[in-house]
Amino acid sequence: MFHLDPSYIGKVWPAFMWGVTVVAAIGCCMGFKEFVWFMSVGYGFAVMCIGAFHLIFGLINQCLTPATAVMSILFIIYGFRLGGYILMRELKNAAYKKTLESTGSTKAMPIPVSAMMWAYSMLMYTAQTSAVTYRIMNRSSDNLFAWFGIIIMALAILGESTADKQKSAAKKINPKRFCDTGLFKYVRCPNYFSEVLFWVGVTVSGIGAVQGSQWIIVLIALALITFVMYNSAQRLELRHEKTYGLDPEYQKYSDSVPLLFPFTKQYHSMKVYRD
């Protein structure tokens, strides 16, 4: 069992962080079965496992505050919902699985490549959740930023869940049409935006708890997940252009509704050419 040590305060990756890294490694190891799962199903389950680890560690060491308890529970809810949703979609949705196969995402990778992705993933997920880890490690008391971050995290989970349900409902009505209802009226990738928003909430929750050089890890992780989500939105836009690009309704929709960030004029991630 790890023990809190005041000398760790201000250090970037002390023993406790390595404990979280091991937990993240266990959560995303399923990527060795399907390479894409390192960054999808394994991502969700790693965050879920980290949330559970925070709760157990905090309780054992009597350093769990109400705010860190709620944040840890939100990690569990977020990870279980995301990982479970993606897993069920890939196992039950033949059309989605075919799309993954067409992109080469399901292609088997050499063990060394998988090991490198595993190492990257476990470090990335440890860094993403580090604001809460540092709050526990530094024995920080709850403040307004902790609760403000919690509100943002909860809204993000609600937004992501709502977007997934709205898209599924729209596809049941018309599988061949793009979704432009509900949250999709305001942003074309509301689930990806909600993903970024969740980690913004985690970062905000660290204000007053994260100390010194620890912010390097927290902010790099936020920048990386934002880049990943932007890249995902970009790839989705390319697929939609291929599928719906000649549809005048889609052209009007994509030219007037922001791609990733609502209430902005960032409609496209690249110059789109249409014949």
State the low-pLDDT regions, or none. Answer: none
Helix content: 55-70%
What is the distance, rounded to the nearest whole angstrom, between the alpha carbons of the first and last residues? 63 Å
Would you tell me the overall average pLDDT? 89
Total domain count: 1
- Report the sheet-strand fraction: under 5%
**Envelope shape:** globular
How is the quaternary structure best described? single chain
The helix count comes to 10
Radius of gyration computed on alpha carbons: 20 Å
Count of beta strands: 0
Biggest sheet: strands, sense, closure? none
Secondary structural class: mainly alpha
Q: Which sequence of SSEs, written as H and E, runs from N to C? A: HHHHHHHHHH
Structure report:
By secondary structure, the protein is mainly α. It has one domain (6-254). It is 65% helix and 0% strand. It is built from 10 helices and no strands. Helix 2 packs antiparallel against helix 3. The longest helix is centred in the last third of the chain and has 31 residues, at 214-244. It is globular, with a radius of gyration of 20 Å. The N and C termini lie far apart (63 Å). The mean pLDDT is 89.
